[in-house]
Amino acid sequence: MSTLDQPNLANIMKLMVRTSLAIKPGENVLILAGTEEELEIATFLYAETKSVGAEAAITIIDPRKNVHHEPPPFVAESMRRADVVIAVAYTLFYTKAKEEALSAGARFAQMGGEGKKDLVNLNFAERDIELCVDRARRLADRVTRSSTVEVTSERGTQLTLSLRDRKGVQLLPFCREPGSFCCLPDYTEVACAVVEGSAEGILVCDGTILAPPRFERVVDEPVTFRIRHGKIEDISGAKEAVDIEAILSQAGPKGRLLGEFGMGATHNPRKLRGARGDMSSLGTIHMGFGKNDMLGGKIDARSHMDFMVREPTLKLDEIVLIEGGRFVLEE
Predict the structure, then answer these.
(1) 3-class DSSP state for residue 182?
(2) Structural domain boundaries, residue 214
């Protein structure tokens, strides 16, 4: 079935190519795919990229094993030589190859794990991008000006941590300047490196888990983390708790350190799918354990794991931003 038979899919492709990435005639675009479904999406992107007069190529790589699985050297070289890299393949976001491509001036876009069905049903337009960008900028400014974070939830989360002298980082659904990056098609998040060792309390994950290698799912039952001096001391809950403990045992001691505070900033409602895009949902927060030096922190762990709280109450310096999963800060 062609894009002409699926008008919304065609519109989403146009939004990504023409608005989010602003691809121009003559630019060199590299599209990376791994699975059969990723290749199908890459083909639609290829067609739209060619329609604006750009040079495009699709490269198929083996499915990535984890978030730090580097692409083959010749692919990394192609990434450095491209004007735009679109990774439909499972995440290359944390790789050295991505950082080198940015340093060489490429624009890098990571797809958020959407399948074709998700894209066909996605209700997202240029005006939504504008709203997400405005919200993310305001939230990032608020995070940068804040020192203390308090998160609670009816499920039992009761966690405090410090962001003092740390900067809020925006992940937006567009990148138009050389050396910039984004997550497509609608991913918007504000994240910040937690002051190492500052987190104290209980975190109850009742939403999506993202952990290597490709351990991505919505939990069947809540998973509880007891955190002291910024480090996981105990994990309890359903089967996922056993799996997470096994992953942490492979990650090393740094993998247990709370390194990231993140909040979703995309107002577009979607059912949780157990994928990266879930973390962008407005009214949710997530905590990342392990690597945070990409956000300006000091943890250079081999792994990074994200755990979502679905209906939190969030306070920054005693100011309520989210109340029971409802975003309330509109300043």
Answers:
(1) strand
(2) 126-327
